[in-house]
Amino acid sequence: MPEIRLPFPPDSPTLVRQGPNELVIQWDVSSAEDGSAGKMTSVSGYQVQIAQLPSKSWRDVGHLKTSMDSSNDDVDGRKVGASKRKVRVARLKPGSGYVTRVRAQNRYGWGDWSSDSTEM
Question: Which domains does the chain have, with CATH numbers?
Answer without folding.
Answer: 14-110 (2.60.40.10)
